[in-house]
Design a protein that fits this description.
The chain is of the alpha/beta class. The protein has 9 helices and 9 strands. β6, α5 and β7 form a beta-alpha-beta unit. α2 packs across α3 and α2 packs across α6. The chain is globular, with a radius of gyration of 19 Å.
Length: about 325
């Protein structure tokens, strides 16, 4: 597994754009966030707490309504991991459901870690009907489509009947199941390992055996900067306060048709405007824009509302990377 220095973005971009490496077999070495950037994270958490609490309760209500009996949450690494931890707490404490939580790797064009899925279903004896795949957000819908293909193939090969749908807090593409299709800022997208239990993004080499687990890197040296438990606890407190105030969660998912129409129009406009033929080079939404500024070297960032406080961290990252902002 090639491991690049976090500062060597030019080399990483060259390997990815040339097709010499797939992102799933290339991992940048992470560094802890700077004090300035960490302050932006804390500000984002404070600003978004009421909205996050509502979305989490609504998503929990949606999952509870669509799963009978016990629930098996399977977070997609890495963005789905802190979300899954919170959803387990909420479903257990406020919906009184029996819940288990796992996390499984998924890589675009490579698929799901089906060996890990077999361990969950066979060794831990979790019913297929109880499984709900969860992630933080859905941007263009590429990971949701990858999940659908992987689970469909897994079902055909194993004789099981797992639902291939992806649950997320927000679904911009109409590709999954979510309480909203608005481009909400989910504050965990600002950080990497230090808000996801000190693990890296998952990786699998091109020659990775199909019966082998995907892998990741751990960062115990960042323990002093880890805010994973802190974010989960303060968000859990916000959820509890909202319930105590009488909030009634909405168990009806947003209609995905509007997201599908909007994402199609946006991608068509952007690819024509910027003369782009490869859709992988276009990232939609706050979450994906944040990830690409952290890990890649984009040409430009296009913003709709430059005055929005939700863009503060993007502006900071773009300035540090000398990326065009318009």
């Amino acid at each position: 597994m090639p491991l690049l220095d976090a500062s060597d973005l030019v080399a990483k971009e060259r390997l990815l754009q040339s097709g010499q490496c797939h992102y799933g077999s290339l991992l940048s070495r992470e560094t802890p966030p700077s004090p300035e950037y960490l302050a932006l994270f804390y500000a984002a958490v404070t600003r978004t707490q009421p909205q996050m609490a509502r979305l989490l309760l609504d998503l929990a209500a949606i999952i509870a309504a669509q799963r009978v009996g016990q629930i098996t949450l399977i977070s997609l690494l890495r963005a789905g991991l802190p979300l899954g931890v919170l959803l387990k707490r909420i479903l257990t404490q406020h919906f009184h459901r029996q819940v288990a939580h796992y996390a499984v790797s998924i890589l675009r064009d490579r698929g799901l870690d089906t060996q890990a899925l077999r361990v969950i279903l066979d060794h831990d004896q979790r019913p297929a009907a109880s499984v709900a795949f969860v992630d933080g957000w859905i941007g263009k819908g590429m990971i949701a489509a990858t999940l659908t293909r992987a689970v469909t193939a897994f079902n055909q090969n194993s004789g099981r009947q797992l639902a291939p749908h992806l649950f997320a807090l927000t679904d911009l593409a109409g590709a999954g199941i979510a309480p909203t299709d608005a481009d909400c800022l989910i504050p965990t997208c600002l950080l990497n390992a230090t808000v996801a239990g000190l693990i890296s993004r998952s990786v699998a080499a091109p020659d990775h055996p199909s019966d082998a687990l995907h892998t990741c890197v751990t960062y115990p040296q960042f323990a002093a900067q880890d805010v994973s438990r802190w974010w989960i606890n303060v968000t859990d407190q916000a959820v509890t306060q909202l319930v105590a105030g009488g909030y009634q969660p909405n168990a009806t998912p947003v209609d995905p048709q509007r997201g599908r129409e909007r994402i199609g129009e946006q991608l068509a406009n952007l690819t024509a405007q910027c003369d782009i033929s490869d859709l992988h080079r276009v990232k939609i939404g706050l979450g994906e824009a944040t990830r690409v500024l952290q890990r890649r070297l984009p040409e430009r960032v296009l913003v709709r509302d430059p005055a929005s406080a939700d863009l503060d961290h993007l502006r900071y990252l773009a300035q540090r990377r000398a990326v065009t902002w318009q």
